[in-house]
Design goal:
It is an enzyme of class 2 (transferase). It comes from Sphingobacterium allocomposti. Helix 10 packs antiparallel against helix 11. The protein is elongated. With about 800 residues, the protein is an alpha/beta fold. The longest helix is centred in the middle third of the chain and has 59 residues. The protein folds into four domains: about 80 residues, no CATH class; about 180 residues, no CATH class; about 220 residues, no CATH class; about 260 residues, 3-Layer(aba) Sandwich (Rossmann fold), CATH 3.40.50.300.
Amino acid sequence: MSNNHMDWEEEFSFENKKSESNEFLRFIGRIMRNWYWFVICGFLGFFGAFLYLRYSIPVYKIHAKLLISDESKGGGSLSSSALGDLSGFVGGKSSVDNEVEILRTTDLMRKMVLAEKAYISYFNKGRVHDVPVSTAPFRIDLLTDPDSIARSYTLEVQFKERDKVQLLAPDTSYQVILSQPFTLPGVGVLTIQQTEGETFKENYGFRISPVRAITASFSSRLSVSTTNKSVSTIDLGFEHNSPEYGEQLLTTFIDKYVEMNLHDKNVIADSTLAFINVRLRKITDELARVEDRISGYKRRNQLADISQQGKVLIESSVSFTKSLAEVETQLAALDVISAYLQDTNNPRVVPSAVMLQDGGFDVLIQRYNELVLQRERLLLANTEDNPLVQNITSQIAGARQDMIANLSSTRRQLELIKQSQQGLANNVTSQITQVPTIERGYIDLARLQQIKQAQYIFLQEKWEETAIGRTANVSNSKVIDSPKAQTYPFLPKRNMVYSIGLFLALLVPLAIMFIKELFNVRVRGMEDIDRLNQLPVLGMIAHSTEKEQVVVSKTSRSPIAEQFRAMRTNLEFALNGGKRILFTSSMSGEGKSYVALNLAVSLALLDKKVLLMELDLRKPSVTAKLGLPAGKGFSHYVVRSEMKVEEILMPSGVHENVDLLQAGAIPPNPAELLVHPRAAELMEALAARYDYILMDAPPVGMVTDAQLLSRYADCCLYLVRQDYTYKEQIRIPNDLAATNKIKPIQLIINDVKARNGYYSNYGYGYGYGYGYGYGYGEYGLASRRKWWQIFKRK
């Protein structure tokens, strides 16, 4: 018994063994059955895409290209200017990657928005949507700070008589006078002026938005990228729905970038010039005072000339004093630069060109200033916690330490030079003391004058050098391809929109089919039977709209009659010499009595004696369907031992060879009656009288009566009704067969609706679909529908 059980388990495993080609054909079949929905949805999707393209606002892409002077990749034409050597005093080189980050900053975009007043836009009001325009018959001027705009407004402008204008919004309206200031809540003070030579022929309006919002919107439309790593060019792209206005905006954006770039270069020069100007004013005042003292000294002492010895001493003293002055000036410059380097929290550019020629220190200053400017640029778009900013900060700290070390070394050298010169100067001073007192006083004043004059000349030379270098400053970027808009819109993409519209439209019926299949719990077709069932299918019975219960007769040639004949032929092989057939199902309403009755007539047409037993003792229905009066039946025979078989047999009225054995009175214990010894005796007696015995049993999914009756049956026919039987109930007959609770079961698929598709002519039962070539519609069996009936339910 255990071995048989194992064999059944292996035979009735519920794995899907169908080929992928069959699954694909089923899918194609479902699509073919609903082809008209795909056609309708495809047309609607295509039409929707057409409407979207018809009323969508096109977006154009504006392109421009910049050339950046990059030291690592060749500076290009910018580095070959005649004054390039002087510009090295005040500027450093910027890498392409850094310039890309600067171009992406919102601060730069904000400057463009403010310059173009892009926070105010105009539109032409249409019936479907508003069409943006670059110009309008009027102009809006904001008299207050643009940063005061706190909310957005979209107002339609309607001109009235006598220079009156009405501004309309969905929830409010304003009436203002042309050229007169008016206040808009949340925005500020504005004026509206009519453009000269323009008249209102259409409805126009304007939209005003916060500067921050417009800046963010424009930043999202801007694309900045390097052409490739081997060149120092930057590609700019900007998206806008007006090609002319978009070109203007991108041009202004580039101009603001160039201005900011020049400003960064001029910061160092301005810092140096400011330092030199302060020193020049101080030295000029000191030199003037010394000259005034010399002039007064000569008048008081009536000096016209001094001796030759005094002149020599004075010249020597002046020479040493001039050297000391130069040393003092360089020490003062070192002090200034040291003061700049002491501020570690807020690095500033260091003034250049204030020291004597020192190639090493000039390189350090240039490197330090370049790093400080790079840090300031990065901070425009990043915080101090950004890794790039922290890297630059660490490099600045390293350069500062190198400069401090260089300054210390230079200071020590200058101190040694100062001591040497001071010794020589003291020696000359001791010689001067030997000249007359009046001449010695003059020599002291002349020496002081020479010192101040040397300092003045030195600073004046540096000022001229720095000023020339500042005027020679040029931007490190050059426009090599001016902003130009594409001829055709960038968005929307017509082919893509049509493709997406068609795809989404076709996806709708597929999604509906999937959802419908997902939530459908009933058997809908043979694909469900194949997927969930491992039992053989004896035959399939098509859907019928006839009210008669018996559709099989001697002269009938309808498709259903032919299906019962085909099932009769298959039944001979299934019985294998037996004669007792049990009909059951999962639940009531699946057509057991209907199929049993017509199969009985079909067998009787072979001139066989057929008995139809109404063994659904709980809810008999065959007698009522035949319109016969209730009489004695199975329950009476079992409980009355004196009753004979002839008393409970009666003609069915549907065929002379078909008899009926009614259920009889509904007993309180039907299960016990079915296994009563009298029931077994009755079955043996009936088997001797009839060629075929058809037993209409209760649903096996509800009670165990069918399992009890299976002991008398040679074959069990299990009814499955399309669109009625639950999918999970298909497992019931398979479990019964696997556990050997009922003798070998075969399925009958009832109430099959004809559908176009893969299974429309499936050949189960040696003839399903037989007769479809002639008269299929005249029997009321779902004839082929006309084209105007495609919206009717199947």
